């Protein structure tokens, strides 16, 4: 168990860096698709978030 803990700590130290992320108040599928399209088009984090959250208003039919 100690070896597993040491490995986890080492991996965390290796992977730790600033992550620019937020949690959107949006539907999982529709919000994810909108966010990916916006990000792929070069959108910044604010525009990606806005696009994901606007997906709440999308008609299902």
What does this structure look like?
With 61 residues, the protein is mainly alpha-helical. The chain has one domain. It has helices at residues 2-15, 28-40, 45-54. It starts with a helix and ends in a 7-residue tail after the last helix. The model has no long low-confidence stretch (mean pLDDT 83).
Question: How is this structure best summarized?
Answer:
This protein has helices spanning 2-15, 28-40, 45-54. It is mostly helical and 61 residues long.
Overall mean confidence score, pLDDT? 83
Number of strand segments: 0
| Gyration radius from CA atoms, angstroms | 17 Å
The structural class is: mainly alpha
In DSSP terms (H or I, runs of 4 or more residues), the helix count works out at 3
The count of domains is 1
Q: What's the helical proportion of residues?
A: 55-70%
Distance from first to last alpha carbon: 52 Å
Q: How much strand content do the residues show?
A: under 5%
Poorly predicted spans: none
Give, in order, the helices and strands. Answer: HHH
Largest sheet: none
Overall form = elongated
């Amino acid at each position: 168990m100690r070896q597993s803990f040491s490995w986890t700590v080492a991996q965390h130290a290796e992977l730790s860096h600033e992550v620019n992320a937020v949690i959107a108040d949006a539907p999982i599928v529709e919000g994810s698709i909108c966010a990916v399209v916006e990000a792929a088009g070069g959108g910044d984090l604010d525009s990606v978030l806005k696009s994901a959250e606007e997906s709440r208003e999308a008609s299902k039919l």
